[in-house]
Amino acid sequence: MSSAKRPVLELRSLDKATHPPARVIENPWWNEIDSAIEKCHKNDGFVYLRVLLPKNKYVQKLSLNSLSGVFRLIAITNDEDPKRHLLEWWDPDIFECNEKIKFDEDEWDSRTISKDWPAVHKIFLELYENGDLGRDTLKDMRSQWDPKPK
After folding, report:
1. What is the pLDDT of residues 79-133, one digit of tens each?
2. Would you tell me how many other CB atoms lie within 10 Å of the CB of residue 73?
3. What are the residue boundaries of the structural domains of the chain, listed by start?
4. For the whole prediction, is pTM greater than 0.85?
5. Does the N-terminal peptide bond of residue 54 adopt cis geometry, omega within 30 degrees of 0?
6. 43: which residues sit within 8 A by CB, 6+ positions away?
7. What mean pLDDT comes out for the span 135-144?
8. CB contact at 8 A, 33 and 49
9. Residues with Cβ < 8 Å from 58, sequence gap 6 or more?
10. Contact 46, 64 (CB under 8 A)
11. How far apart are CA 18 and CA 28, in angstroms?
């Protein structure tokens, strides 16, 4: 892909092995994003990838938070429906809500907390390459007003 057609992105990341402030990179290369995800996985922390340009894409930002080898993945969107501005990734391999799991300070449906790190890399790579997420990826992201049935 030529650099003229690449989306303009901003990467923010911080993990427990690094002192604040968060690392901020405008126009990161994929290896910088991939490295931030790996550090987040190994050391707990966060990775945010925001689309600066073009502004008309559906997904504005991906937010990854990791604790003890598990993660939550959130997409902030430009959806016209305010109820779809924040979408949570629901692990497609977990079909039933076995319990509420405490993640950081809050309890969440167990299907919104995952160990599927290859999926994280795939989703971030899609945003990196396209500046947006396609229907195949978005089908596993849901609004809090539209959770999967228990």
Report:
1. 999 999 999 999 888 666 666 666 677 777 778 889 999 999 999 999 999 999 9
2. 25
3. 8-142
4. yes
5. yes
6. 15, 16, 17, 18
7. 94
8. yes
9. 77, 78, 79, 132, 133, 138
10. yes
11. 18
